[in-house]
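hey so i finally got around to running the thing on that chain from the lab meeting. sorry it took forever, my laptop kept dying and i had to restart like 3 times. anyway pasting the input first so we r on the same page abt which one it is
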Amino acid sequence: MSGADLLLFNLALLASWLSPGPAFLVVTQTTLANGRRAGMAAALGLALTASIWTLAALLGLGILFEVVPWAATALRIAGATYLIWIAIETWRSARAPLTSTPEVQRRALQRGVLVNLGNPKSILFAASVLVVIFPPNLGWLEVATITANHLLLELVLYAALTALLARPAVARGYARLKTAFDRIAAGVMGTLGLRLAFGSDQ
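ok and heres what got predicted. didnt touch it at all, straight out
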């Protein structure tokens, strides 16, 4: 593995991150509704799971899905179900006041983990992009470096996003439009969940 390989991986990860999906939406909605700490808790859960997918891919995740194809389908269906559940909960709580407590932050962390656990975008990135970028037969130190790099980069990107969303002007604007925004977010997450349920992995 060379420094150029790692740079190419980071650029691919950045491009993927800038293409909003369930993870981006969850951090955005959580930060706006519950504050920066809750948003970063969700981001930590997302980043941990995404880096675990990277580690799994480097250790042969793609081969596992080829040998046991129903495993990928099961993950997709579980992810779809969870996204639809989040959509329903977000819709129901659209009129609830803004809150940020340790319990809310714990739930945000769990939500982040579960969203990326069944997120095809995260899985496909790990299972395909990594195989193209990095040479085979990486050593354990190289695998650890790639995994840690992925975790750190995601945390840095999410920290920048939550800092932007937590700005007073943004927070005040969200407070005025909370019900409408949360219901739009719920609709988008529900749509993504239905797409996954009907077999779209894109």
